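Q: I'm building a small set of examples for a reading group on sequence design. Run inverse folding on the following structure and report the sequence directly after it, with nothing in between.
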């Protein structure tokens, strides 16, 4: 019995069961289990309980705890939510608390959302299969309700949901990715989907999906916002010809083009390729393997033989004539088929390993292992991937391609399983995403350090318009993003295998990724087999690709990474490779433009916020490593300017798996206040790793990286502008809505809101006008206002602490600091209208704030008499002769006497899904603080004109005029006309914070820890006088004594593995990741996850009967675990899984008894 509200004093019986799926991974330990509960009335999951198909089974456990065959723990996504008919909310909360408190069981009910999708470019869709929204949605046009990242109907309206129709009832955060949720029967509302979809080799379901999409086209939300908010940010396309499609006549290759603006010459013959000459069309006849000269390796006898290639996709036909060695096909979906009914998986596999002369792959002798993880409707669950990943580990895959992507780097189960994949020496290659040309749009898992992230280029070596750009945004607000993609490859108009045979041409980073994956397989085969997998690992392969890449002329580092794949150069590196460590980038000339944009755009000077750069340490010596000592900066001999640099570091205390970060903070000392020129030097550090096979000595590799900086004299205060990054809250983990409600293709605010991501155009405009923009990643209490002419608060979602409000007020009144505030819409009824119930996660999703946190901004502005209202304004405005476009902007509801107020006739769309009502509204105001020496304020209700992701027309000229007023009190700009004699008020109540949303969960200021939070204290990114300044902000976690003990730990772990069943390793924080056995030392599985938004009951299950996970004092290296895994491979079968299942059952039974008592 479970009690906790609604169950009576004695509780009531609740049946519960493991949800199993009979698949190959079930013969191996798995770390993901799902429990389904059933109330006394027999209702399960709030819907009628469906019968499982042939490949599904459930295992019931009665009230007494007796169980039958407690065998495999399933890894489905059955969910029970807070609306389950058979279980009250109180009982559900009690059960979830029980699971969360159980030892070695982590409740991840909010974490199993799958948030990625097939990364096809929209233009790859055949002409007669164009979605209703079309491509125009990207430019702010009226997209259909199912619009994807840029107008695709296939997967947009879903939130986590990646489905095939993208209807208006899509869901936001579940593992299920079907867009046609609105039409789904009630039995499909749980995490598991029982219907047998069967095979769809001809795409016969597409017309039905289109029909549903049209029926759902009326679904709107949030003032005409389009489909229900979704988590999908890539742009998948069907990738298969619809019924009735026939090949183009007269030898046309049938290529589809992603860029409508591309002129005919570049599409049909204009321009020469730097990698072979001729037009793009001509190169298509040469094939992508010719563009990279794969024949140079083929002629040496290398063709990918004996390399196991895992293709995680939509499957492949067993008898497809293009493939020599399809060694195994596995299905991890609910559909009863192994075949590819979509075409995506076939094409990807063909680019890697086709033997067809018309569309050859790179490695025709590779062993293809097809993991079918997407259905014919492009549906998948995180749990399917977790199962498939486990099987890939168990079957010793060598290379794994993921032509998928999404923005949720806080999907902990998926992200941490990727870490486990690479920790098992599997080289993972993944598409960087199709969200270009916008910056800050990197997709996961390609944005992870241990994964090879691939961007796309065309045959003229231009970055493809669809290819996502960096930097990574994990590290914001108080850090700086990493360089991604790692490399780029041809991804437009690439020829690959057709589902029914023959060839076709498609585009997308889904295409570029298998190009690199095929090259990786081919390169793997060049290493002699007897030492191949002693040499090759995710780090050594990344080193070969990155160091061998050819830098392109024109694109920036956050667009191309190291450059275009160079197969022959990478071959030369691997041919003579010796395990070593390196840094990416391997050299850093921060004066080199445009490649080193944005760093080359602004020089260093004394007194500035520190220059920050985030480099990646790659350790080819071993899975685990550590720095011997903090890095050292050494100025170049006779470079007198370099002596003025203060260089400090932070770094990963443990390099795992294979990689870590090196953060570089550079300041100019007081001695360099008036100097100018170039300063150079080098950073040096040593990496240590445990001994390799047959070795006794710890491995050591010294890394030296040259760096060059430009220094200028400190500019005057009037030219120094500060940007507050700390007050930006973004997705993930919460539902942060878009700023421009007209942009229906981009539902979430996830691009970072940083001057080097989606505000990059504004950054360039400021620099071109002579302004220096510095970035504050800490609270407003962490800077010296006397150094800056103005601070910019743009699109702020974070709360402001009392200390921040007091300090900013004092800075303006006493220190002459000026403030520019660009707000956004905030209308509670509109936010409430955007709320929806997600069928998969059984939870409601609702925006946690508006476009900006207006109540917080009003608190900050209250001392000056300003306040925003809750109107949503749309239209054009004339501000002092400057025309600006207002898109979903807020009005000004209050202004002090003496302010320069700009009132315009503009549309008000508040509470309206379409259209607006014209009226007079105040949209902006400027103000001189009356205190002697006081600063000035500019308050405006819209930031979209500065945001390169969402703008229709930029307002950079207005910004320059505003800064002239703020920094020099220039009143000749036309913005300072008549002065208001009295305080202005529109007579309406000011917007209030939502009481039904706990914003504190997402706010660092309020004490939340959403997973990507900053710090409420001043950190290394602030001036030295505001924090505890140290030469190094990190210290090596391992000493030489620990290093020497590592060898003994390897032997001890190997000897003890029979008793522990330990098969994986420890995270960098000392927690364990992987699977525990049933013996005395089973490891804890994963760390407590943060963020999310699901209510399904799921758990990671660790080994039973033993102590918890590894601690800092019990840290073992992953080399120990690798050795243990080799010894235990024969034991990782049914007995281990059975024991673990029984242990998990006992844990839950014990907890139920506690509640009952």
């Amino acid at each position: 019995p479970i009690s906790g509200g609604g169950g009576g004093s004695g509780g009531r019986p609740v049946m519960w069961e493991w949800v199993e799926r009979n698949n190959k991974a079930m013969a191996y330990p798995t770390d993901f289990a799902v429990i389904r509960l059933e109330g006394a009335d027999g209702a399960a999951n709030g819907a009628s309980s469906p019968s499982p198909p042939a490949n599904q089974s459930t295992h019931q456990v009665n009230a007494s705890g007796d169980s039958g065959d407690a065998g495999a723990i399933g890894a489905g996504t059955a969910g029970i939510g807070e609306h389950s008919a058979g279980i009250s909310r109180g009982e559900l909360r009690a059960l979830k608390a029980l699971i969360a408190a159980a030892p070695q069981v982590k409740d991840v009910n909010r974490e199993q959302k799958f948030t990625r999708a097939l990364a096809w470019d929209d233009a790859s869709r055949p002409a007669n299969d164009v979605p209703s929204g079309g491509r125009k949605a990207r430019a702010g046009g009226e997209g259909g309700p199912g619009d994807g990242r840029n107008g695709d109907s296939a997967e947009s309206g879903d939130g986590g949901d990646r489905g095939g129709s993208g209807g208006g009832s899509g869901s936001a955060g579940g593992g299920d990715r079907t867009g046609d949720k609105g039409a789904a029967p009630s039995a499909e509302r749980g995490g598991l989907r029982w219907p047998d979809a069967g095979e769809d080799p001809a795409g016969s379901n597409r017309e039905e999906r289109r029909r549903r999409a049209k029926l759902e086209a009326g679904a709107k939300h949030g003032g005409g916002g389009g489909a229900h908010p979704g988590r999908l940010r890539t742009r998948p396309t069907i990738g298969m010809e619809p019924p009735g499609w026939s090949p183009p006549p007269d030898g046309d290759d049938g290529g589809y083009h992603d860029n409508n603006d591309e002129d005919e010459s570049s599409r049909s013959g204009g321009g020469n390729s730097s990698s072979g000459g001729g037009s793009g069309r001509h190169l298509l006849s040469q094939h992508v393997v010719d563009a990279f000269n794969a024949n140079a390796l083929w002629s040496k006898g290398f063709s990918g033989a004996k390399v196991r290639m895992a293709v995680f996709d939509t499957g492949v036909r067993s008898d497809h004539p293009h493939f020599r060695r399809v060694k195994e096909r596995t299905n991890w979906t609910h559909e009863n088929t192994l075949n590819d009914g979509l075409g995506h998986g076939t094409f990807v596999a063909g680019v890697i390993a086709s033997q067809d002369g018309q569309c050859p792959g790179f490695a025709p002798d590779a062993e293809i292992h097809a993991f079918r993880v997407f259905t014919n409707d492009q549906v998948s669950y995180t749990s399917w991937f977790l199962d498939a990943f486990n099987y890939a580990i168990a079957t010793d895959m060598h290379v794994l391609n993921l032509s998928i992507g999404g923005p949720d780097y806080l999907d902990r189960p998926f992200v941490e399983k990727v870490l486990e994949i690479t920790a098992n020496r599997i080289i993972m290659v993944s598409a960087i995403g199709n969200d270009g040309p916008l910056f800050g749009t990197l997709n996961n898992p390609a944005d992870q350090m241990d994964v090879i992230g691939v961007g796309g280029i065309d045959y003229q070596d231009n970055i493809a318009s669809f290819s996502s750009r960096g930097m990574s945004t994990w590290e914001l607000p108080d850090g700086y993003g990493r360089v991604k993609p790692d490399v780029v490859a041809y991804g437009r108009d690439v020829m690959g295998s057709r589902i029914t045979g023959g060839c076709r041409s498609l585009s997308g980073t889904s295409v570029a990724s298998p190009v690199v994956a095929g090259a990786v397989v081919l390169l793997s085969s060049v290493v002699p087999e007897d030492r191949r997998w002693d040499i090759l690992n995710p780090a050594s392969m990344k080193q070969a690709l990155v160091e061998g890449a050819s830098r392109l002329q024109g694109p920036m580092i956050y667009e191309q990474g190291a450059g275009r794949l160079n197969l022959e150069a990478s071959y030369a590196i691997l041919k003579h490779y010796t395990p070593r460590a390196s840094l990416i980038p391997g050299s850093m000339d921060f004066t080199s433009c445009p490649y080193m944009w944005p760093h080359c755009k602004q020089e260093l000077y004394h007194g500035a916020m520190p220059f920050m750069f985030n480099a990646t340490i790659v350790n080819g010596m071993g899975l685990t490593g550590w720095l011997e000592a903090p890095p050292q900066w050494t100025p170049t001999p006779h470079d007198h300017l370099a002596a003025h640099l203060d260089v400090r570091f932070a770094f990963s205390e443990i390099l795992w798996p294979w990689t870590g970060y090196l953060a570089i903070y550079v300041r100019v000392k007081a001695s360099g206040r008036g100097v100018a020129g170039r300063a150079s030097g080098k950073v040096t550090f040593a990496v240590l790793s445990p001994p390799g096979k047959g070795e006794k000595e710890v491995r050591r590799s010294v890394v030296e990286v040259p760096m060059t900086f430009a220094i200028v004299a400190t500019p005057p205060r009037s030219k120094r502008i500060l940007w507050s990054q700390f007050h930006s809250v973004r997705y993930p983990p919460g539902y942060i809505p878009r700023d421009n409600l007209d942009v229906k293709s981009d539902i979430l605010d996830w691009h970072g809101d940083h001057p080097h991501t989606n505000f990059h155009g504004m950054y360039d405009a400021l620099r071109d006008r002579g302004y220096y923009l510095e970035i504050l990643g800490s609270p407003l209490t962490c800077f010296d206002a006397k150094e800056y002419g103005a601070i910019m608060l743009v699109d702020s979602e974070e709360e402001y602490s009392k200390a921040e409000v007091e300090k900013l007020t004092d800075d303006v009144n006493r220190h002459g600091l000026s403030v520019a505030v660009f707000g956004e819409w905030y209308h509670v009824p509109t936010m409430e209208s955007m709320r929806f119930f997600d069928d998969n996660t059984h939870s409601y999703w609702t925006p946690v704030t508006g476009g900006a946190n207006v109540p917080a901004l009003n608190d900050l502005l209250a001392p000056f008499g300003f306040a925003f209202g809750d109107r949503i304004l749309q239209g054009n405005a004339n501000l002092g002769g400057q025309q600006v476009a207002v898109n979903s902007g807020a009005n000004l509801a209050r202004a002090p006497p003496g302010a320069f107020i700009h009132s315009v006739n503009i549309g008000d769309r508040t509470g309206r899904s379409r259209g607006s009502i014209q009226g007079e509204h105040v949209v902006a105001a400027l103000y001189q603080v009356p205190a002697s020496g006081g600063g000035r304020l500019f308050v405006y209700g819209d930031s979209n004109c500065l945001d390169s992701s969402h703008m229709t027309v930029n307002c950079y000229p207005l910004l320059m005029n505003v800064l002239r007023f703020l920094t020099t009190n220039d009143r000749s700009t036309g913005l300072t006309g008549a002065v208001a004699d009295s305080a202005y008020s529109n007579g309406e109540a000011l917007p209030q914070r939502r009481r039904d949303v706990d914003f504190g969960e997402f706010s660092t200021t309020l004490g939340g820890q959403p997973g990507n939070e900053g710090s409420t204290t001043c950190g290394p990114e602030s001036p030295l006088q505001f924090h505890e300044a140290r030469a190094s902000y990190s210290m090596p976690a391992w000493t030489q004594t620990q290093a020497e003990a590592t060898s003994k730990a390897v032997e001890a772990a190997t000897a003890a593995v029979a008793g522990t069943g330990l098969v994986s390793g420890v995270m960098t924080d000392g927690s364990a990741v992987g699977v525990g056995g049933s013996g005395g030392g089973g490891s804890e599985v994963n760390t407590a996850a943060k963020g999310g938004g699901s209510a399904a009951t799921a758990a990671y299950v660790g080994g039973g009967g033993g102590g918890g996970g590894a601690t800092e004092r019990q840290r073992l290296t992953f080399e120990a675990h690798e050795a243990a895994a080799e010894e235990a491979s024969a034991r990782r079968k049914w007995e281990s899984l059975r024991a673990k299942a029984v242990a998990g059952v006992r844990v839950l039974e014990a907890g139920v008894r506690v509640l009952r008592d």
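The two ends are 10 Å apart (CA to CA).
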